[in-house]
TrEMBL record:
Belongs to the CARF family. PANTHER family: PARTNER OF XRN-2 PROTEIN 1 (PTHR48430). The gene is LOC120056943. The lineage of its organism: Eukaryota, Metazoa, Chordata, Craniata, Vertebrata. InterPro entries: XTBD (IPR021859). This is CDKN2AIP N-terminal-like protein. It comes from the Eukaryota. It comes from Salvelinus namaycush (Lake trout).
Amino acid sequence: MAEGDIEEFIEQNRHLSELVDTYRGISESEKHWKARRAFLFRNINDFEDPHIDQLLALSMVWANNVFLGCRYSPDLLEKVNEMAEGIVVDDAPVFKTRDEIMKNQKR
């Protein structure tokens, strides 16, 4: 969903907006929350109430990978990246592995 699409979705689904806003972590920055919130709105209709925790976990996996550089199994990353397709994060950090850093220093 693009930014405008999210705002339109929120207007049409005020109850979901209020629900999703309760999932914000106390330590999440505005930038982090805005992206994770877009992830939640994009996928919330695919997860029924007893499975909402799974969506929340997947949103954290995606956000942790994007913002913190956390690594997960390739299959899991593929799944969350597909779920996040179209979500643009401006100025996302770029992370290098230890091997990449060591390779550059040997040059």
